[in-house]
Write a structure and sequence with these properties.
The complex is a heterodimer of chains A (352) and B (305).
Chain A: H1 3-6, H2 8-16, H3 18-22, E1 36-47, E2 50-61, E3 64-68, H4 75-83, E4 90-95, E5 98-99, H5 104-110, E6 111-114, H6 126-136, H7 141-154, H8 170-182, E7 188-192, H9 200-215, E8 220-225, H10 228-234, E9 237-242, E10 245-251, H11 252-255, E11 260-268, H12 271-280, E12 284-287, E13 293-298, H13 299-303, H14 315-326, E14 330-337, H15 341-348
Parallel strand pairs in A: 3-8, 3-9, 6-7, 7-8
Antiparallel strand pairs in A: 1-2, 1-4, 4-5, 9-10, 11-13, 11-14, 12-13
Helix pairs in contact in A: 6-7, 6-8, 7-8
Chain B: E1 2-4, E2 9-12, E3 19-21, H1 40-53, H2 56-65, H3 67-81, H4 92-101, H5 103-123, H6 127-131, H7 137-155, H8 157-171, H9 175-179, H10 183-206, H11 212-237, H12 247-258, H13 276-297
Antiparallel strand pairs in B: 1-2, 2-3
Helix pairs in contact in B: 1-7, 2-5, 3-8, 4-10, 5-7, 5-10, 5-11, 7-8, 7-10, 8-10, 10-11, 10-12, 10-13, 12-13
Classes of the chains: A alpha/beta (352), B mainly alpha (305).
Chain lengths: 352, 305
Amino acid sequence: MACAETCKRPFTYSLGTLDTVTAPVTTREAPSPDGAVVQLDGVSVAYGKNRALKTVSARFAYGAVGLLGPNGAGKSTMLKALLGFIKPTEGRMSVLGLDVAERPLEIRSRIGYMPESDSHIPGMNAVSFVGYCGQLAGLPAVDAMQRAHEVLYYVGLGEARYRNVETYSTGMKQRIKLAQALVHDPDLLFLDEPTNGMDPKGRDEMLALVRDLGHNKNVSLILSSHLLPDVEYVCDDVVVMDKGQIAAQGPIAELKGPAGRVFELRVKGNLPAFVEVLREAGMECHSTDEDVMRVFVPAEVARRSVAGIPGPIGSDQRAIFALATKHAVQVRHLRPSVPTLEDVFAKAVGEE
Amino acid sequence: MLTCDVLTCHVLHVTATETMPIHDQSYRRYAGTRAALGRSWIVIAWAGIRNMIRKRAFIGLMLFAWVPFIVRAVQIYIASNFPQAQMLAPDAKMFRDFLEQQDFFVFVTTIYVGAGLIANDRRANALQIYLSKPLLRAEYIAGKAAVLFTFLILVTWVPALLLLFLQVMFAGSFTFVKANLFLFPAITVGAVLQALLATLTMLALSSLSNSSRYVGILYAGIIFFTKAIYGAMYAITGNSGWAWMSVTDNLSQVVDVVFRIPAQCATCTPRFAMPWIVSLLVVLGLMTLAISILERRVRGVEIVT
């Protein structure tokens, strides 16, 4: 298909905003020496007698951090406390190195908040709404309107920007909530369940946008969600919450354990001798109650073949097979399983 | 350099090694200026005013609210130019009467403009959007109040002052103004009290509900119900001291004092048999109650315990 036809409109747009194409991305410094954008020290929040946060201490690193937990775990409460909507009964919070209790306005001028529920300013079309939000955040009217157009294009609402927000579909409402959170160019984004109510395609697009913001646009973000795949796709770090407490926190890769794969293995032959062979090859073996054992093949072991030559993808299975062949052991069952964020989450909240 | 496939169109940076969809590049960091904190209420007020003046029905209401002004202007003109019509000559009470005439328009404007000011934001969950921006709750309330207050001033203080100005113009002298120097502050204080009470009461009611219609009915109900209660008590006891139960009568009593009535009017007697200070306390109490309701209701998150 001729490019002149297929690409006419996007290309025209890119020429129209050439400065946006060539403008360098501003490099932002980490707000505190240890790179934490948000820090909570012993924070408790109570709704009457119900304690929503129980002496929570957490640290959100610079970049994309997931705030994971089941419904009612206290994720939204934590975000609202950080925004200053709710006063904690005890503890101290800082955002971007600023104390939440002492400098809430400065903090709010540097963060963007995408609420969980449908929210808009009534009686406005999309571009007026987003521009208005920009003005509320301190941008001059002209700049706010220009950025409103830009962010609406960015979130995929360019064609619908003159429609009244009240006529938007659920997916479009999610996008415009992201646009209003972005319009004033925040250093940190609080995204509360950004994919709620979206169809699979819209969800993928929203996650791609959020991931892009966190990884390419230099915007730190906290993604609150109960959807593990969303967090795993977008974030590098995670804070797992359960019943108002922190259940686990840290880089996802670290929480998932060392890189490698776990196999369920059942063999026929001299089992104790084969276990020794596997251990000598650098693999970890754990027997289970049944005759199936779990074998962990570290990534570095998987990457080299038995002969010491780096192997391709799937070489971990082949390494086990090669050892079995060499030691005359018959492999009866071999099923791989990769540790996922789901495992981390289940372990953190004490699920089987 | 531009490269395309069937689904997407990419711009290839000369120096970059990867292609980027064009939409990705529409987001850029903002390097412009930002207003100092504490000015967001002006943005809110201006947006609210613009929103109202876009409505034809509202413009019609505003024009209608100025009809009494035109009538009074004609009265002043005739009194100034025709000696035979001296009975129409303006006095301090005429200005007080004018403000009282505007009560109806204050009532209608308050319901039309004010009912949805916070209720609509509550319905659309807009409060969390507003309060996630760098503005205080007080700024939000001030912005919303400024919308209604502006229009109420436009139907009370502005025409009343214009009448005073017209009197000077038509008479060609400052004699009347010099003889009634208290009129300018009296008009100002009276109109501001009227507008402030209506604004705060309506905003407080608007913060209690998600439905502007319900809020409008509630406001009208409070005005008429308190008046009716006073009417009933007066009918039973024959004592106008019960007027403290009526919102509008308390305000009338206070504004009368501001305009030095009955001191300015030999034939006038106090409207109600109660000390004006009681009325003032009721008015101030209502304002305090309204502010207290607003303080509790305007929050980024609604806490139900």
